Amino acid sequence: MEYLKLLLKQYEERGESKLDLEKLKKEIEIYKKSLKEDGILDNICLELGKGNLDSVSDTDSRITLLTSFKNTFPNDKARVILDGEILKNPHGITIKENNSHEDITMQPNNQQYCIAHNPFDYEKTCSDLQVLHNQGFNVILGMFGNFSDKNYQEKLEQLRKFREMVAGVMVLKNKGDTYISLVKTKGSYK
Asked: Are 88 and 103 in contact (CB under 8 A)?
């Protein structure tokens, strides 16, 4: 399964030899708790590029997921889960669903966020977030892991580059051995 291979690759880039699902679950919970404390978790309208093991959305959330790992959410009827691409429209975006004629249109709301974290494809994710930002959406790119991770500095550098692209604000938090770093922007809400 491609999704598990990408998760394993992320763990290997951290300097670990195997994918530890319990550790991942714990880190996701710490990340979600931090997003909740900051008033972000309940205000996410779109999450990009995640599967069922590393998504911040729950079955009772109203988050739309845009992911090529739609098949990792079996029998999930509660959330809107799409595999497609983001297209600009005059009032926001349209998500064009692959292999379907059902598109979803979204308009920016100054209280909601589009979020991505620990992306599998940094360039594609940043490109999508930049389109969303330019269309008026508030966006967040987050990274989290352990301070001892081999790629800790590399992930911070990726966030710095993204911050420069979108003129965002960067926040770094320490939660024990876990770090959480975010770049947040306010879209040009129309």
From this structure: no
